[in-house]
Task: structure prediction
Amino acid sequence: MTIQQIDSGMTAYQILDVEGNLVGAMPKLSTERILALYRAMHLGRALSNKVVALQRQGRATTFGSLVGQEATSVGLAAPLQPQDWLTTSYREIASLVVKGVPLSTLIYSFRGFTAPYPKETHCLPIQIVIGTQMPHAVGLAMAAKIAGDPVVAVGVCGDGATSEGDFNEALNFAGAFQVPVVLVVQNNGWAISVPRARQSAASSFAARGPGFGVPSVLVDGNDLFAVYDVMQQAVERARSGQGPTLVEALTYRTGAHTTADDPTSYRDEADVEAWRAKDPVVRLQRFLIKSNLLTEEQNQALIDAVEAEINRAADEALAQPVPAPDAFFDYTAANLSPRLQAQRQDLLHYATHQQNGRR
Ligand SMILES: Cc1ncc(C[n+]2csc(CCOP(=O)(O)OP(=O)(O)O)c2C)c(N)n1
Ligand SMILES: [Mg+2]
Result:
C-alpha cells in the first residue's frame, strides 16, 4: 500500500466570470431582487468606508474593512429566512445589513458599544474572538432541531479561524449530530499577516469537510450569483433535514486587516492588484449593464443614494451619547463581584487620568 496525498482537485464554482459574463446557470432571482442585492453590496462597501473614515477622525474604534468581500457577505445572507440564525465575525457587516440590522446600530457599535440588534433579525453580535461563533451557530441549529423548528443557522468565519479548535469542534458536532447548519469559511487569503498557505496544508478549506462527514463546496466568493446559489442549496438541505454543509468562499481582503494594520509591510502589491481586477461589485455591475438591467446613469444614482443613506445613518449614530468607558461592566453581570468592582474603579481612575492628561 502507498500513502498518497488526497487532493480533492476542487475548482471554485462560478456563474459569473470576471468580465460579468454568465458561465453557469443563473439562480432563480427576479431582476428586482438582483438589483436589491447589488445595492446591498454597495451599502456594505460604503458602510465599511464610512467607518474607516470615522476611525481616522477619532470617532470610531479599530475596524476591519470588508472591501473586496461584498459578494460573499451579501450572498451568504440573502437566501436566509427571517427565523434563520446568523453568527458572524467582525468582517461580515453586509451580511448583518441584509438580515435587517439597522445601519446606525452597526455604526454605533464601532463607537465602542454593541447595542442589541433587533431580536427579529436573529443575528448574534459580531464576534471578535476568532472562531467562537461557529459552535454558537451549531448550538442554535441543534436547539432548533430538538424543538422541531424549521430553522437553519449559518456561521461564518475566516481562513485563520479554521486553525482554531472551535472551528473543528463545530464541524465535528455538526456532522455527528446532523445539525441543520451551514458553516462558511470566508477565505480572504490572510489572517492579519499570516498567508493562506501557512494556515493549512489542505488543498482547500472545503476539502476538510469530508473528514468530518460533512459535504462541502468551494465557491468563487467574488461571484454573487455563485455564492447565492450554493448558500440557497445548502440552507434548503439543512432545512429539509439533510444535514450540515461546509462552504468555502474564495475571496480576497484587498484592504488592510484593520485600521491598525499596514499590509504593505508583508504582502506584494502586485497580488493585491490582481485581485482588485476580480472586484465583486464591478463584476456584477458589468453583468447588469451588459444585460440592460441597469444604465450608467441609474448606477450613479444608486451609488449617490447609498452614500446619502450611509451619511444619514452615521449622523444618527453620532447623535447618540458616547458610551461611558466603564459602561460594559453593566452588561457583563447582574451583580459585579468585588474583583470586577475593583477593576471598574481602576478603569475609571485610568480613564479620568487620561482625560486630564490630554487637556
Ligand atoms: C482567539 C483569538 N486569537 C487571536 C485573535 C487576534 N486576531 C484578531 S483577527 C485575527 C486574524 C483572523 O483571521 P481570519 O480568521 O482569516 O479572519 P479575517 O480577519 O481575515 O476576516 C487574529 C489572530 C483573536 N481576536 N481571537
Ligand atoms: Mg482571513
Summary: The radius of gyration is 21 Å.
